[in-house]
Amino acid sequence: MLKNQVLKSPGNLLPGCFLVLLSCFVIVDTCADEHLKGHVAYEYEIVNQYRHDPTAFTQGLVYSNGRLFESTGLWGQSRLREVELETGKVKNEISLDNRLFGEGLELYDDKLYQLTWKSGLLFVYDSKTFERLATHRLSGQGWGLTETDGKLVKSDGSSRLTFLDPATMKPLRIIEVTRGNESIDKLNELEMVNGLIYANVFQTNQVVMISPVTGQVVGTLDLSGLLKAVNYYGKAGVLNGIAYDDQNDRLFVTGKHWPYLFEIKIKPVN
Ligand SMILES: [Ca+2]
Predict the structure, then answer these.
(1) Alpha carbon of 212 to ligand 1 centroid (Å)
(2) pTM for the full model?
């Protein structure tokens, strides 16, 4: 309709080549809209803000049954922690070997699963004692980790998510994550929220909401301005921590070296 209107009305006054160019833009735009049908843009409001250790280079965040766990990165500073939500106080902590860089974290069946970045190692711990129960070798890089339907889901910095058997760590299937026709690269920290995989896109303030069946992005949450909203203008890294309290429907987010962890509510943009 818009395309026809553009072609009909000012057509006599425009040079032919400009007309062709203009109609191409309109067609591309129409196609993009068509492919993004069903996609919803979300915005947030801050419900609560809690202290977060600003020395923590957050790589993975998990909340379950009143317990908050965090995996941190950097060489020589990588940790596995249990943190008190309300105060940010570290309740339990172990350090990784200096040659390992901590990455994504998930709690499944009372065990914590922690990825490492480039070493191809995944560690399994008792969630209460942090005793290491198993070490698995994985192919590719380790970035984010979550769980759905008894399968672990791993990101590796690409646009792919790999579903793994938690007992053997064998890959079961891989999905390609797309929004419309566009592959979404650099998928990082993951979290399962109400049947969708939330993934933070590295070095952006975007969280994409992915169908675990098709890999299609059905929603995008823009988390820009979280720290500014609480008048924090100090040094902080990128957004990189998502945890969901499914019992109380609370969504928590933080970032690398952020001084705060936020509980947010999200809603579609009007
Ligand atoms: Ca998470």
Answers:
(1) 15
(2) 0.87
